[in-house]
Amino acid sequence: MHVHILGICGSFMGGIAAIAKAQGHIVTGSDQNVYPPMSTQLESLGITLTEGFDEAQFHPQPDVVIIGNALSRGNAAVEYVLNRNIPYISGPQWLLENVLQERWVIGVSGTHGKTTTSSMVAWLLEYAGLQPGFLIGGVPQNFGISARLGNSPFFVIEADEYDSAFFDKRSKFVHYHPQTLVINNLEFDHADIFADLAAIQTQFHHLVRTVPGNGLILSPKSNQAINETLGRGCWSAQQYAGTDWQYELIKSDGSAFKVRYAGKVVGEVYWDLLGLHNVQNGLMAIAAAHHAGVTLTDAIEGLAQFKNVKRRLEVRGKVNDITVYDDFAHHPTAIALTIQGLREKVGKQRIFAVLEPRSNTMKMGHHQEELVASWQTADQTLLLEPKGLSWSLSKLASTSNSPATCFSEVSQIIDYLIQHVRSGDNILIMSNGGFDNIHQRLLDALVLTMEKTDD
Predict the structure, then answer these.
(1) Residue 48, annotated ligand binder?
(2) HEC secondary structure over the chain
(3) Is 115 annotated as a binding residue?
(4) Domains in the chain, start-ordered, CATH in brackets?
(5) Which residues cross the membrane (predicted)?
(6) 361 annotated among ligand-binding-site residues
């Protein structure tokens, strides 16, 4: 079958392309921006890519077109498909019908931690020899790829609450029908498609309704929004982090902790990750893998060998003992947890938090008070103010109790850092986008400054 994918260069659609290719389909696709690393990853699989959405890409005509949720009515390719009655489907629906129907699906959902936790679960199953398939919205470094078909009944998927397609406004995850469901946390996000938290809770309850009676739902005991959602009705077994599953910190930075199950210590984890949020993610991953048949011994041993997903407190480089980190955090809760995790690691060393408020939710002005609170444990916060905001980020920064400064250009942020950082400092860059390649530009500037100093 010839499968053509519109919006192929996103991590989710690119993962579907890789899986479809592994099934033996002819796969082609197009996107507005075709560039590495996704373009090279897809081309290495023998997938033909087209830049843009003109009608020439439909010759020869594919058997089915998978349409990504970034495309809408008015797009030339979408209109061509509709006008000629070419069969089309959303990515999540295609995945259900062609991959997930006969699999033991482990879905990892929640506002934060989906990518990291799903990567952990996939790795724990792999460590136990179960060879799972997976589709994750990032690149787990234990695998080096974001998706694969797998050679077992198990399939791990990052269960995203964003909508499926322009013609299917249900959340992606209602298509996945998980046997094991993790709900990490639940907060208001995605203000571009959800009116309020209640609207998101409704979608999560649709997801809960799809878990079979012999399935398992894992969630934290103390999360009110999740408890309210489950209170609408739950027909599956439940286990909770905080009661059934517990952790006990061995090191305050989260780099070592004990695991308790049913009241008994079942092992200790020593790993490279930091932060309480990652300890919580790890606990959920152990619980999910255990439900799929992984022994607690294997799960705990495997977690110790987990390599974090790229862009999760990833060290991009170190110059003159100045460390530059990259992190995907873009919601106030994630920002606060990331900074706190780094603070536990570096102690009294200075942290410069560099933030691009890029998500649609923050651009629309939501979470302003929470955003200011999120960076207070940093020594200084540098903010890139997006163009066209309906509210003032500079005015918001002026209410901060810790030093916070706004800039209009990335180059200004780099210049400021070069003038103010010193040996032993930590620069934590947070964005869910490319941030105009600030990480490498900053490292290059630090090297150049050091060379001039040596001269």
Answers:
(1) no
(2) CEEEEECCCCHHHHHHHHHHHHCCCEEEEEECCCCCCHHHHHHHCCCEEEECCCHHHHCCCCCEEEECCCCCCCCHHHHHHHHCCCCEEEHHHHHHHHHHCCCEEEEEECCCCHHHHHHHHHHHHHHCCCCCEEECCCCCCCCCCCEECCCCCEEEEECCCCEEECCEEEEHHHHCCCCEEEECCCCCCCCCCCCCHHHHHHHHHHHHHHCCCCCEEEEECCCHHHHHHHHCCCCCEEEEECCCEEEEECCCCCCEEEEEECCEEEEEEECCCCCHHHHHHHHHHHHHHHHCCCCHHHHHHHHHCCCCCCCCCEEEEEECCEEEEEECCCCHHHHHHHHHHHHHHHCCCCEEEEECCCCHHHHCCCCHHHHHHHCCCCCEEEEECCCCCCCCHHHHHCCCCCCEEEECCHHHHHHHHHHHCCCCCEEEEECCCCHHHHHHHHHHHHHHHHHHHHC
(3) yes
(4) 2-91 (3.40.50.720), 102-304 (3.40.1190.10), 314-454 (3.90.190.20)
(5) none
(6) no
Residue 190 labeled ligand binder: no
Q: pTM of this prediction?
A: 0.80
Q: Does the annotation list 424 as a binding residue?
A: no
Is residue 348 annotated as involved in ligand binding?
no
**Residue 233 pLDDT more than 70?**
yes
**Residue 114 annotated in ligand binding:** yes
Output the average pLDDT for the chain.
Answer: 91
